[in-house]
Amino acid sequence: MKKNKLKLSQLLAGVMLWAGLSPLNVQAQPLELEDISLLDAVCVSTGPGRWRKITEDVSVNRQVYTSLLFMGPGTQYSGLTCRIRPENPGPNDYNFQTLTLQFGMRDNDWKSPSATVKIYLDGKATADQTIGPGQKADLSLPITNVSNIAIETICNSDSRYCDRVYFFQAGLDPILPPPIDKTQPIPEPNRGATPIPIPPPPTDSQSNPPPSTLPSIK
Questions:
Q1: What is the separation, in whole angstroms, between the first and last Cα of the chain?
Q2: What DSSP string describes the chain?
Q3: Can you say whether residue 65 is alpha, beta or left, with left for phi > 0 and alpha for psi between -120 and 50 degrees?
Q4: Which residues 6+ apart lie within 8 Å of 35 measured at CB?
Q5: Residue 190 has what pLDDT?
């Protein structure tokens, strides 16, 4: 997942730079950063149907959306599984907190049976949503410490062909370190400590001593 590592390193570098440049008397504000796409991860096909990354404008409920992926279940189902973290992540490896999905079926495919989208996190069924032609759905799932995400699109008919399900969002929200607050007060000196005495300035007699008395000559 080289692309994710690069993006996260850029995000973390931006946090450090931003924190270093914050004025001392200004409250630190959280950064607003774009999600990382699930499709940047290592993804493999897991079903007889097909899926493809594609940018296409489609109409859903008479509104135009731009897709980044479609999944075609056909008469059975299509699926993909993506690994978003290393197999044995360490404490310093990147992590994510939320998976955000948005998907729907086109208005044009009004003859198609409905399809059910199922989400698996580390092999466990976590959520499902059934949609039909002209319908759109949104899902947001917590994924902290999750390593694998699987999506299956299942046709809800044994005899009829299901048309494509288009995905408009598939975002991974990364966990970032908290911003550095530079508004903490500067520690004051210890007023209970015994002050060091300052010696007085020299007197005139010390600064300009009189000349020594010369011996008298008889």
A1: 110
A2: -HHHHHHHHHHHHHHHHHHHHS-TTS-------PPEEGGGSEEEE-SSSEEEEEEEEEEETTEEEEEEEEEE-BTSEEEEEEE-S-SS--TTS--EEEEEEEEEB-GGGTTSPPEEEEEEETTEEEEEEEE-BT-EEEEEEE-TT--EEEEEEEES-SSS-B--EEEEEEEEEE--PPPP---PPPPPP-TTSPPPPPPPPPPHHHHSPPPPPPPP--
A3: beta
A4: 100, 171, 172, 173, 174
A5: 64
Structure tokens at 142: 């917590």
β-bridge partners, 98: 142, 173
Tell me, what's the pLDDT at 87?
80
Burial class (CB in 10 A: 0-12, 13-18, 19+), 210: exposed
Cβ–Cβ < 8 Å for 81, 104 = no
Are the CB atoms for 118 and 92 separated by under 8 Å? no
Q: What is the pTM of this model?
A: 0.68
Whether the Cβ atoms of residue 84 and residue 4 lie closer than 8 Å to each other: yes
Which structure tokens are listed for 52? Answer: 């493809």
Tens-digit pLDDT profile for residues 163-202: 999 999 999 999 876 666 666 666 666 666 666 666 666 6
Average pLDDT over residues 26-55: 77
Q: Residue 73 has what pLDDT?
A: 96
Dist CA 16 CA 180 (whole Å): 9
- Report the pLDDT value the prediction gives residue 86, as an integer from 0 to 100: 86
